[in-house]
Amino acid sequence: MRILFITSTRLGDAVISTGLLDHLLHRYPQARFTIVCGPVAAGLFAHMPRRERTIVMTKRPYDMHWVALWRDCVRTRWDLCVDLRGSVIPFLIRTSARRVMRGGRRPGPRVTHLAQVLGLTDTPMPVVWTSAQERAEACALLPEREGPWIALAPTANWSGKVWPAHRFVAFWHDFVARHGPARPVILYGPGAAERQMAARVLDALPDALDTGGNLSITQVAALLQRCALFIGNDSGLMHLSAAAGTPTLGLFGPSRVDEYAPCGRRAAQVVAPGPTGHADMKDLEVGVVVRAASDLLSRH
């Protein structure tokens, strides 16, 4: 059995879709999977069981990336095509069954929207797949004797989502004063912009472990599984942390918390005050985040 799974170009949405993939892995134990995603998300599926291939779809002018994908897939006979992008591809290839997510803004969690594509009443939660080597490397990088380790993710792909760096620093000092010694792990993505945002926190917390921004997605996931807590902006890293099972506190401002709050029983969120869609992260107080983090930590 061969399944074509078309997911998002963005890391956060791709992470959210892993719950659906995990469901399909268990439902069809003999199936082989081809994953279609963007370059940023491709590494997420590196250790997925029974993954036959990943097709990395890079955006091209005039939507020619869809034509390239059709050429890649048209010669194969598929048993099932799941398309979370709502494209015409499932209708232009040979497939015994197709499940296509329709566009349009809908209320409720994104993870629930994805479950509805397969007609599921129980919403499958996102997962991560890491290798034994990555988990061993994470143990060496974050030794238990130096912990507990707390992950801070002070970056995002849009400035409106970013809690100011000095607030992260103030949070850390307040949190440690309440809970005792801990070590911060600073997580961020590749590129100069991400590095610049993280640098302001790194400079103020000399004891922090700088992950460098050059780890693979699954290496970061293995590190997150070693952390006692994650505090970070609405980002792909936040969703990755929740999928890794780390107690995760997402910080939200103008982004859509009803749709993109972190998923799972070990996840929570705080929202800056203000009207929906216009809340300012500068108005999110340190004390509110500290109390929410303390509550999450006490429960898990």
Automatic annotation (TrEMBL):
GO CC, alphabetical: cytosol
Pfam families given in the database record: Glyco_transf_9
The entry's keywords: Glycosyltransferase, Transferase
Keyword Cell membrane recorded: no
SUPFAM superfamilies: UDP-Glycosyltransferase/glycogen phosphorylase (SSF53756)
Domain of life where this protein originates: Bacteria
GO BP of this protein: lipopolysaccharide core region biosynthetic process
Molecular function GO labels: ADP-heptose-lipopolysaccharide heptosyltransferase activity
Protein name, UniProt field: Heptosyltransferase
Organism (species): Novacetimonas cocois
